[in-house]
Design goal:
Blueprint (H helix, E strand, L loop, with lengths): L6 E3 L8 E13 L5 E8 L1 H4 L8 E6 L8 E11 L3 E12 L4 H12 L5 H11 L3 H7 L11 H27 L4 H11 L3 H7 L2 H6 L3 E3 L2
Parallel strand pairs: 4-6
Antiparallel strand pairs: 1-7, 2-3, 2-5, 3-4, 5-6
Helix pairs in contact: 2-3, 5-6
Length: about 220
């Protein structure tokens, strides 16, 4: 198979792109169909000086699969909303799993996994500590070891984690091929988990099936 051509959207890339890294503190709006999200981000410490002090930044754009407590790297540009003021418009998003016990607890308790709220998340992290996410990824059946979780909830955790992983893998694959977050969301919503296979086998199908996608020549 010939290498896939670079994929482009119809919108021109805005000037003055910047990159932000931080933790998603809360999501104030999320559209499941389009992936459009309004969230608050706390920038990581090394960037805080650029803003005068550490504080929450409003970030907006297509962020399918983003969760509270998740560390993310965002590429985009600053805009001024007439009502809400300065905000960061996201063009690309890369999720980074939390690397601290507190971050993992917040991540799991954010609603990421059906049936796991803050209380259950606290129990899970207390039991497995910093290895919690590795356990869920590599040996999820061990959730049975946590008091109060049980078999039914363990199966729910396994299923929900697999769904989140599938979304992130598709989004990462598409973005690595030059697809904006907005178009990647369209592609995922149209093809679901089959998106990677379709792009690899017949990338020109995207232009036929999905409005707004073309190929650079």
């Amino acid at each position: 198979m010939n290498p896939s051509p670079p994929i482009s959207g119809s919108d021109a890339s805005p000037p003055h792109k910047e990159r932000l890294r931080g933790v998603v503190e809360r999501i104030t709006y999320h559209n499941e169909e389009t992936g459009y999200t309004v969230a608050k981000l706390t920038p990581e410490r090394r960037q805080a000086g650029a803003f005068g002090r550490a504080y929450e930044i409003a970030v907006v754009g297509n962020m399918l699969g983003v969760n509270v407590g998740e560390s993310v790297e965002l590429t985009g540009h600053w805009t001024i909303h007439p009502e809400y003021g300065k905000q960061f418009t996201v063009e690309q998003m890369r999720a980074i799993l939390p690397a601290t016990v507190a971050g993992i607890e917040k991540y799991l308790g954010s609603g990421l996994i059906r049936g796991v709220g803050p209380v259950t998340a606290k129990r899970i992290v207390k039991h497995f500590g910093i290895e919690t996410l590795n356990i869920i990824e590599q040996a999820p059946e061990r959730m049975n070891e946590v008091p109060g979780v049980g078999r039914v909830r363990t199966q729910t955790i396994i299923q929900a984690w697999a769904e989140q992983k599938a979304i992130k893998e598709v989004m990462l694959f598409l973005q690595s091929h030059g697809v904006s977050t907005s178009l990647a969301t369209k592609i995922y919503k149209f093809y679901g988990d089959d998106a990677i296979g379709i792009v690899r086998q017949d990338p020109y199908r995207l232009a036929r099936d999905i409005f707004g996608i073309g190929f650079l020549t």
